Amino acid sequence: MNNKELKKRRMWTYFIDATEELIHTEGFKQVTIRKVADKAGYNSATIYNYFGELSHLLFFASLKFLKPYFKVVTEEIKKTSDPIEKYLVAWEVFSEHSFKNPDVFHSAYLMDLGEHPESLLAHYYELYPADLLDVSDELKPALMKRNIDDRGRFAISYMIKAGVVDEDEAEELNELTNLIWQGMFTNVLNNRNRYTAEEAHVQSMKYIREIILAKTNKV
Fold first, then answer.
1. pTM of the shown model
2. What parts of the sequence cross the membrane (predicted)?
3. 74 and 55 belong to one structural domain
């Protein structure tokens, strides 16, 4: 790696780390390009040499906040070999963490990042490869998927391989479960829901579990 590339990587981490610190101290909604620049010790114009827009900075910073989620889902999925239970566990952990940290999960998985969000995700792990050290090889492919539908397809692949559902049934189940979560999550994120974060998680998992068990003939 030449000096120019090293400098570029260093500048990226300066701004991402500054964004992370601002989120910690002020919250997602208070982060601005100017504040990030001031925190990192540069002017705002410099940031645009490395990031196209604020959403990209928030996306990269949000991934740093996902490490506890990655750790828990890795540990929990290892505890069962049953393909249906693996899918349920994947949803349980994702749902619980997403409702506890809606701004983080919105930025990481739903916020409009423009073109080629997958390349941004890959670039993050180039900058922070240590974030993958505690993630099992089984789950690493899923972490390289930013699209919720694609991540769901990976999670449900265990059931396809085991013959529990065929590909068409899996696609339908994936769409239904994603719609349940996204509907509840969007309402919570926009303060349009009567549920607390914990209640939203419990209610979402009630519906998701019912659909999964119905579609796999377990009820």
1. 0.89
2. none
3. no
